[in-house]
Write a structure and sequence with these properties.
heterodimer; A: about 475 residues; mainly alpha; about 75% helix; B: about 210 residues; about 0% strand; elongated
Chain lengths: ~475, ~210
Amino acid sequence: MPNINDILIMLPELYLVVAACLLLLLDAFMKPEQRGVLHWLSVAVLLVGIYLVVAGQPPQPVVAFGGMFVRDGVAEILKVFALLCTALVFIYARPYLIDRKLFIGEFYTLTIFAVIGIMLLVSAGSLVTVYLGLELLTLSSYALVALNRDSPLSSEAAIKYFVLGALASGMLLYGMSMVYGATATLDLASLHTAAAHTGMPNLLLFGLIFMIVGIGFKLGAAPFHMWIPDVYQGSPTAVTIFIGSAPKLAAFGMAYRLLESGLGDLSQHWQQMLAVLAVLSLAIGNLVAIVQTNLKRLLAYSTISHMGYLLLGLVNAGPEGYASALFYAISYALMGTAAFGVILALARAGFECEEIDDLKGLNQRSPWMAFLMMLVMFSLAGVPPLFGFFAKLLVLQAAIHAGMLWLAIVGAVFAIIGLYYYLRVVKVMYFDQPNEGAELKMQQDPSVRVVLSLNALSLLVLGFAWGPLLGWCRSVFPG
Amino acid sequence: MIDPQMFQLVCFYAFAAVTVGAALGVITLRNTVHAVLSLVLTFFSTACIWLLAEAEFLAIALIVVYVGAVMVLFLFVVMMLDIKQEHVREGFIRYLPVGIIVALVMLGEMLALIGVRAMHMAVMGPNPATVAGVSNTEWLGHALYTQFLLPFEIAALILTVGVVAAVALTLRHRKGPRHQTAAQQVSIKPADRIRIVKMAAERPAPNQETTP
């Protein structure tokens, strides 16, 4: 029977649910001119959420609702960074939304509901909670993508996202039903023991394959990546930045819960499958990104390749691998928010700033902005001494320690190929002449300027002082 | 005397055949209304299979909720949209061979890997409702509000998101419509509606106006 302890363990999630409902009500009774209050309240709600997650963290992993919900160190890190990234998204998105008449309360409420989905997903202790948390996240995301309903591109992206997402959820659910059929349990902890001596190993493996397809879809790993470029390009940039950051942490959390907590005993099987996904993602992501002219599409293919690197960490299937994959997910979430943050900061009413050519001569117009973008691009490419370099180094190391030297070599080769298209953006900014009549100005909003600068500079700082964060990531995976 | 187990097996195969046939009808029938009706049949025969599996509550819920409410809504939508048949079926024949091949390969793989024999293995154990000695519905109610309380509440959250999303995506503030404002209607005073004009009882002299 659920009792008060269960509620206390889930306090951050329950708090966010209540806060989201209150914001929804507040929005209904507020005049449109007063939405600025709603914006800052939403940011405050997320920051208080971070405090509740960290302050109430029990020293040992605890479970609530009969094992349905797990609160451990992995969940803590993922929740902290998911909430942080979402707060950054809110701050960057405000001027963009105001310019496009999308500054409505539902953007904030739906995003907070999506974050609740992320938190439930990364804390899931049962197949049911994994699925429901994922649905809460994706359902909110579909609506967010379609938020700009007068744009045909946006509606097209939303339909594609919805249909492919529903297909992926169906695959995942089909796999889960097979795993349930083979083990007769939904609880991930008992699944771990039941998987070892099931009477139907083939059925279990079949279920595992479907579950990996579902995970691949959600991560956006090739060959299940088809939705990513269209959704990234089609959705309003204020939504793209959200989809490109916090849900990646959720996807890592989901993969960890399902594959390690649930089916850890089958690691010899899923290691091979993930290695294939990783190689395909690295190849397709990096090679197709080279020919892109749209910046949002380029970042979409870059996401696919980054998910390939994240998979290199998971392939290790040991504490070291998980720690490096978690570190990579965090680094990608921070880099993704910064990259799209720059695009958001350069966009203004009637101008999206989403073609690479739009950045021509940015250095002459706004040197500081060009410098921030250069930091982000170098970090995404993995140039030392930036944050992205150490993240890449750690996953490559994890792949080598897993005995997959060839995989690490593939990763390193594609990192060098990837360098080309990141450097192209930098070249356009610094060495090309600006387009006639093009006006590139940084957003005048002081909160955007300060937070974006801090976000991009953190990539440099974390590049030098990555020790504590890595230590934190390593401490949560019992050796 | 009919063997009850045998009878159940025959029933299962009959319902399963109807389900598969009706599901095929959903995707092959030319008339969209007929397709929806065969979807109703699919749901109905699935509910019958669930009855055989002793999941009475789910079977009834499937008929009441899906057949009774959702499918009727579907029918209305299909009738109102006036979808062009040829357009919907574009590419159906072209992709049919690929679809059949994929389906057959999947079926073959599943039969080879999982096998028909696996059906007879009792992984699940006895029906928990029977063990507890209560009805299926009662056991489900207990489980839903104790063991599965958290998923149940998350499902409620998902429905909330559905409502918020539907409103956010469809609500349009139109210019021009005239609304009734109940508060104004209630708070109105007699003086706002009628004006009492004092008039002389007698008819005034000509060329003199009394009412404006």
